[in-house]
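To assess whether ligand presence alters the predicted conformation, the chain was also submitted together with zinc ion. Input:
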Amino acid sequence: MRLCTLALASLCMAGPARADIPPLSEVAISTATALRDEHSTAGVAYGLVESLTTEVGPRMAGTEADVRAVAWARAKFEALGFDSVRVEPFSFPYWRRGHERGEVLSPFPQPLAVTALGGSEGTGDTPLEGEIVAFDSLAELQAAEPGAVEGKIVFITQRTQRFKDGRGYGLSVIGRSSGATEASKRGAVGLIIRSISTNSDRFPHTGMMRYAPDVKPIPAAAVSNPDADLLINMLGRGEPVRIRLDIDAETRGEAVSYNVIGDIVGRERPDEVVVIGGHLDSWDLGTGALDDGAGVGITMAAGAAILKQEQRPRRSVRVIAWGNEEQGLIGARAYAEAHAGQMSKHVLGAESDFGAGRVYALRAGVDARYWPVLEQIAAVLAPLGIAFEREGGGPGPDVIPLVQRGMPWAQLAQDGSDYFDYHHTANDTLDKIDSEALDQQAAAYAVLAFLAAEAEADFGRVPAQ
Ligand code: ZN
Ligand code: ZN
């Protein structure tokens, strides 16, 4: 008999009671255990990232290299034996980066390591010259006296803190995304920020920024961590510090790119899908090994492992190499819109987009009545060093638009302690990746995707926050 208190009545009536949710079968668990232990795809994920970074390299959305990346992903899905491979197009404003130079004019002339932020305007025919005014954070800029930055170049000095889960990025990235808007509103002529970075190399970190529609676009760039320190030391001498920025960049016209989709077609409920993936595009400075060649390689390899099993899982597993994540989840938003009518058939989604560190936790956003199924999945993952955490976490970026339409999510949380050392820099290259760590992640994604697709029950809809 089901016992519903008043407080639990809505939960009880919304779906099956806890006892009604069938557990994963022993056969499913033993297949997943084999997926975890057999290492049938050892080295596959690394091989894919090596191939992508070597044969395609930087692949910013809308570029010729992005077109080659799409062809690469399609060919790899086919070579790995996915049952159905296709691309889905979407369009977006095309941003182009040309040359970029920065230097201190006075009081101590010397070069600066700078890079334009994605979406920034260029400096035009004449380089921009101006005095810098430093602020500890975006909030401090917003609290500045009227006129404090009129005709000057705003410099946001906030440092990004290192954490295993990367939360330091969330605290500082607002300066990158909104700094130019807030500076322009106050009459500034340009913006520089300390890179959203946890390292001390002299690599500036790019990344997306946006102008509010009602502000004059001003050039926006990042300086490397040591260059930010250098400027602060100069400001400490008490004299005005003047810099020059020479940036060629513009947003011009529309470009088209594609989500590349590989399906493993389910044997009983092919229209119900478990979605895993990474994003195919990268910024243009490095070769996009960590961000997000790794995620593409990990999830394609997970799919390849599932394809090696004797039979297909009950539901379909869909691996998506998402297009244009970097400039605002453009491919993911297009997918969510195009598939809005099938969102109730999207039973669970996860994305690998946090580098190549080992997975240490499984977290999820599912109806709490389905926790017992997740506990079973977590028990299979435990020998990989993965704990089950019922609190915290969140969906990977490209699954957010699907989660907003009700899809439950899972997160295989990776150790991202050094992710923001390399993120969005010329230093995001293959040598930062350990092949065995990728195998651990691919095994984790294979177990998660297989068991979620094999479960008799689905995971309900994502709970309201
Ligand atoms: Zn990414
Ligand atoms: Zn990125």
